[in-house]
Design a protein that fits this description.
The protein is an all-alpha fold and about 250 residues long. The chain contains nine helices and no strands. Helix content is about 75%, strand content about 0%.
Length: about 250
């Protein structure tokens, strides 16, 4: 059983990961289509603009001098944001830019603070409100409203299957593996603590039941003893009355 703070954090990164990747990929493909070229041709035409980016990012887009990886489903947010910034930023509306900036901010906060495995209710509600509004605004422009509403709904409320959610986040290949592992460990730690507490409660219940049993036995023994003494007292009183009558007669 997870604490609410752990669960809020899990819902938060699930929303950012699934919703953010969906929207950023759709936006890249939409902008490429607006340029009347396929994405591969556009990337080759703008190759020089990626000369000064991190070598790892450059190689993921241009595996070799003559090949291009234009499959956005293999890109993480950092790559999607980079391509949007380098190639399409000037074409985006202020609303779209604001929404993308919101995704980037929350995504970078998670990557930059991997040890924060919980969120209080206030931070969670504020972040979720900002993300949901940004997601819905962006979804309108890429015909993804129904899909985004589905993501928001699944990550917002109701019972959550922790293992399923963790595996879903891991399969995104978006967040650091250390972050996902630390989050899983936090749930396992809480579950272990709750199990120990449950064992302690069961022990206490057992002791209470034993005490009750002992008290019942002691009560029964006391009543039996009192009854025996009462009978003996009655017998003694009867005998004493009999003696008194005899003495009276004798006198």
């Amino acid at each position: 059983m997870a604490t609410l703070d752990n669960e809020r954090y899990l819902r938060h990164i699930w929303l950012i990961g699934e919703g953010g990747l969906l929207l950023l990929r759709r936006i890249v493909m939409k902008e490429a289509g607006n340029n009347r070229q396929n994405l591969e041709a556009l990337l080759l035409n703008h190759k020089a603009e990626f000369d000064n980016v991190l070598r790892e990012q450059q190689q993921r887009i241009f595996p070799s001098q003559t090949t291009v990886n234009a499959d956005v489903n293999t890109w993480d947010m950092s790559l999607l944001l980079l391509v949007l910034k380098k190639m399409f930023w000037h074409n985006l509306s202020p609303t779209d830019r604001s929404g993308i900036a919101t995704i980037k901010y929350h995504r970078n906060h998670i990557q930059g603070h991997p040890l924060e495995m919980s969120m209080n209710a206030s931070d969670y509600d504020t972040s979720r409100q900002l993300l949901e509004q940004s997601f819905r605004n962006l979804a309108t422009g890429v015909n993804a409203t129904a899909e985004i509403d589905n993501v928001i709904g699944r990550t917002a409320s109701g019972n959550i299957d922790v293992q399923f959610a963790l595996q879903t986040i891991r399969d995104m290949n978006e967040f650091k593996n250390s972050t996902v592992c630390a989050l899983q460990e936090s749930f396992e730690r809480v579950r272990s603590e709750m199990s120990q507490m449950n064992d302690s409660i069961e022990d206490i219940k057992g002791h209470v039941e034993n005490i009750g049993t002992v008290q019942t036995i002691q009560h029964d023994e006391l009543m039996r003893s009192l009854n025996e003494e009462g009978q003996q007292l009655k017998q003694l009183l009867t005998e004493m009355k009999g003696e008194a009558k005899l003495n009276f007669v004798c006198v």
